[in-house]
Amino acid sequence: MKFRQEWIYWTCQVAGWGSYSAVVFAVITAFLGWQTNIFAGFLLFFFYSIGFTHLLRLRIRRRRYLDLPASRGLPRIFGSAVAIGALEILLVIAISRILEGHNAFDATGMLSMASGVIFMTCAWTAVYIGVHWYRRYVESQLSLRKAELRALQAQVNPHFLFNSLNTIRGTVGENPEHAQDMITSLANLFRRSLRAEGTQVVPLSEEMAAVSDYLALESARFEERLNVSFTIEPAAEPFPVPAMLVQTLVENAVKHGISKTPEGGMVTVRGILENECLVLEIENTGRLREADADGTHTGLANARERLRLLCGSEATLSLADRDGTVAVRVVIPQHV
Question: CA gyration radius for the chain?
């Protein structure tokens, strides 16, 4: 990353000062014709302008001017830029005397040359400040996004752990062997969680393995009240999805659907590729209650928020009542 930034910096240095030198040289040549001394002067100007502005950059970084408040940092930066421009003007005059044998600038030419050099040095400085501030803004936004994602992930994990431990506690006395299987499934889930720590997206196949362990826990508690069906298109299995997204939605289906229905029901998970998007549907027996419709409960609200942070407005999550079942439909674009 640092090498790439330096490469871009030097490319811009060469392109910027090269373009300025070439344009001014072309204008002068149009009036005076080709003169080797003028060409040599501009060639030298090209090189020492790059050198001086690079020294200005080093000064800005070493003195940490950009870390100061703008009211203190900017006067120091542009004061240094004007000083650098003045040095360039002195060099232009000195080199002109050496190459021409006399002062080649009259009063008008001197004013025009001095104002052009100082303007270009200050313009270079303004562009450098703008790029630095933009990069800092982008980095701060990325850091903020990562912090938000970590906070949302932290909300999901304790919620799931609480539900799982309650499930195991209710099973230990009645069926110790099932309780052991549930503890194994819980251990598998948290092993995956530890391996994937810091990973915001995982392949759908890995997410579905976590869902299977979660439903194994819940099936032990609900027994015949909970039926499960997975229909995942093979081509969709490697598609990246936000970590714990499907698990959160399935947990939501069990909590707000199956557990509210005395006779139990079915949880169905479907995944297909459609128009270069992954379409996921999590459907459960039950009806859409007023409390569920706005998605204010933790699971659905977090799923929506994580989709927004990772995919922006291109990914969607919708909730619908389908005559005896409730379905969540998620559409995730290919580039996630």
Answer: 33
Q: Are 79 and 68 in contact (CB under 8 A)?
A: no
Closest by CA to 286, choosing from 318, 326, 322, 254, is: 326
The three-state (H, E, C) secondary structure of 235-251, written as one string: HHCCCEEECCHHHHHHH
pLDDT tens digits, 33-52 = 888 888 888 899 999 999 99
Structure tokens at 105: 């600038």
Cα 307 to Cα 149: distance, rounded to the nearest angstrom: 10
State pTM to two decimals: 0.56
**Sign of torsion over alpha carbons 31, 35, 41, 45:** positive
Q: What is residue 222's predicted lDDT score, i.e. its pLDDT?
A: 78
HSE, side-chain direction, 13 A CA sphere, residue 192: 23
Cβ contacts of residue 84 below 8 Å, gap of 6+?
52, 53, 55, 56, 121
Which residues, listed in sequence order, are joined to residue 321 by a DSSP beta bridge?
326
Burial class (CB in 10 A: 0-12, 13-18, 19+), 161: middle
- pLDDT score of 270: 95
Beta strands 240-242 and 226-232 are unpaired
Residue 62, Cα to own-chain centre: how many angstroms? 29
| Torsion angle, alpha carbons of 184, 186, 189, 195, to 10 | -80
Exposure class string for 66-104: b at 16+ Cβ within 10 A, else e: beeeeeebbeebbebbeebbeebbebbbebbeebeeeeb
Q: Is the pLDDT of residue 231 over 90?
A: yes
Confidence check: pLDDT of 294 > 50: no
At residue 35, φ and ψ (nearest 5 deg) are: -140, 125
